[in-house]
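User: Hi! I'm working on a homework problem where we have to compare a predicted structure to a textbook description. Could you give me the structure for the chain below?
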Amino acid sequence: MFSNRIHAGNELVKTIPIPIKQGTIVLAIPRGGVIIGHQIAQYFHLQLDVVVSKKLCPPGNFEFGVGSILHDGTIYMPDSCAEYFTKNSLNDEIAKKTIQVQNRLKKYRGNSDYNLEGKNIILVDDGIATGSTVFVVAEWLKTQKTDTCLIASPIIPSNVFKELKQKFSDVCSIYSPDNFVSVSEFYENFDQVSDEYVMDTLANY
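Assistant: Happy to help. Predicted structure tokens:
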């Protein structure tokens, strides 16, 4: 168990294969992933950036994410999850969440312009549950013409770990449980991270 996200980040750096290629970018998923990403970026003297996604949730169920969307409209949703929406409700959810993602991205980094072509990426989160957040980023990174992309997270359920191995050049984790309940069970302190923390951290890069 980790005492907090800083502890998790410091342990996670030990799992990342070296040497790290020059110009590698740590791409963190806010908010908690920024703490982990900051530890990795500091340790290897790398640039830190963020990519923002939002869960796509069926009408009336705002916690049940069945997919994810990014700022440019890139969507990840398993075919089996389409049954949770009508055509109109899905279009409404996509429109609403796209605006929310764009606003948050603008708040964190000022714009949605990325220059990742030919870059090596370390994609970081503080824990992965269903994987939808990172699967949508994997789809988006294909369009960015990156060189390689490694994903690093302290906790990845074993079934999701296997799926990620098919989408990323490498997958680094500390805990990969067969019986997974929640990310928070692996942390003594899993307090919510503020927008201000994210922005203050990114301001150092």
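For your comparison, note the following. The chain has a mean pLDDT of 92. Helices lie at 5-12, 32-44, 87-109, 132-143, 158-165, 195-202. Good luck with the assignment!
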